[in-house]
Amino acid sequence: xASFLSFQFNGSDMKYQTARDVIPSSERMQREIIASxxxxxxxGINREKRxxxxxxxxxxxxxxxxxxxxxxxxxxxxxxxxFYELLSPEEFMVAYVSGDxxxxxxxxxxxxxxxxxxxxxxxxxxxxEEDVGATAISICLKRKIPIQLxxxxxxxxxxxxxxxxAAPVFGKQDNLDGVLVVVGLNSVFHPNTLVMITMAAxxxxxxxxxxxxxxxxLLYTGFLDSVIExxxxxxxxxxREMRILKINKKGNQILKQRGLDGKQNSIIESxxxxxxxxxLNPKNWKEREVSLQIDKQDVHLYYSARPVVSEKNELLGAVxxxxxFKDIKKLANKVSGTKAIFTFDLLVGSSKSFRKSIDLAIRxxxxxxxxxxxxxxxxxxxxxxxxxxxxxxxxxQAFIPINCGAIPSELLESELFGYVGGAFTGASKxxxxxxxxxxxxGTILLDEIGDMxxxxxxxxxxxxxxxxxxxxxxxxxxxxxxxxxxxxxxxLQKAIKHNRFRTDLFYRLNIIEITLPPxxxxxxxxxxALALHFIKRFSPGTSLSSDALEKLVNYSWPGNVRELENTIxxxxxxxxxxxxxxxxxxxxxxSTVPNKGTSGTLREMEQELINTTINACHGNMAQSAKILGxxxxxxxxxxxxxxxxxx
Length: 647
Hints:
Mean pLDDT: 83
Number of helices: 25
Radius of gyration: 28 Å
Shape: globular
Distance between the termini: 56 Å
Low-confidence stretches: 1-19, 590-598
Strand content: 15-25%
Number of strands: 21
Largest sheet: 5 strands, antiparallel
């Protein structure tokens, strides 16, 4: 229950601080890591290996420390177990560190624990900055903020090759009780892990607050009723006869009912609850989806049912937790990181062609018409889509991007439209909403629309024509109101001529067409402005030398802004002097942009660019895809399409 409750009392330790939920921006985290490196150097931390004499508790001291933290560990250990179930079992471990820096508990992958142990990552060791230098744990202890470190961010090179996220756990009067940390391998680390571990830390705090309040419950009459009524989730309890014992205010609002306490109700009957099965198979009754007809209105719910048993394991009834689908959708979008970040004032560039595109995009943001973004890979089409969304009336709603070229056709339909439980082999038994449903009221970005298979184009056209979606396996349609922005690097006119793209779909999408200029056409001023922008983001305080700038502006940038960003970031890793020099700029592919005298179709030039890039990278497809600014799936498909030989 602590995961969804919030309280505010006048007594000590009774005020919930929402500011704790704020995760620092990537720029601030980078500044914190740089500052920690400087402090680590001042402490004289060994850059190669952990100190063998690192501070460690004796067995007796460790037992005393565990006993002192016994209350919070009783909450932390089950929470770690629950959190660990969300991760890949073989690739992660989760640990808890006391407020004064001692590791008290580790759980998870034996492989990761073994690697962590070789770096003194064992219970009893102290992990302050003066012990280990810059790590997620030490920075979190020092600065009391959520933090993520990747690969080279650690001060000690022995830690390179892993990633970690840490979040502070606060106690009474905002004192730091400890740190929750997840450690994994670079190849499996997900960008949303920091959000998840922070939410887990907040859940522990809420649970601890609830325990403390239970100790003081004699001071508050009707405490349990107040807790239930304050929940932002519908809560309903049933007895063995399926009578409603208690329903909170939120539950009444969702079900549009009053006076349900002590009664049986047809709404409960429509859920087909089976108390015995809920007790025997509780996992089967989590996160169920149902559509109800209440007072001639459709109510779309997600609910979970849990058994209520006595100390002797006798079944007493059940408790239901439920929310409307629209509220679950908002939470899912927030946690999954699909919120649009970029606004028009964050788009860097002053060239005439670029400003023309921005001006047209600003106009587009004031309407609900479909937008078609055209431009080479790496020109910033998704950033424009985010800016258009944030400039529109839909800015507070969801922004859902999906890459139509990176998902196989047989999976794309379920991603876009969703499916009902058991619709096909491997489908979740509870079903799943599609991207269009998640984007209802907001914006959906159909990226790489030019790579969409022909059969999916037909199904997408129907959605555009009717404004309705139908989940796979469903027998009814749902109305949706999603603003569509499509983007592609493909010449759709030529694709139409070659029967690879439908003419009717093109005209449905091409209401407002915005072409983004390639970086080579934006001029030296934009290249310089973007280079300085990326330097400021990745390494504040570093300057750009004149010879490096000359090298940048004389390059043709086949990968456009994305290639420039990668080049700057790569160069900063080689720069130790505080000034980025030409020698730090590694332009891996020579200019392959055809000059004015070059002949050939756009398809031929695309084939030549891919072939030249792969050869320059000696057949390394991952590196080639990164330079070209496309996914490896797209690159392999293009290689097959053009019949390019690879090593």
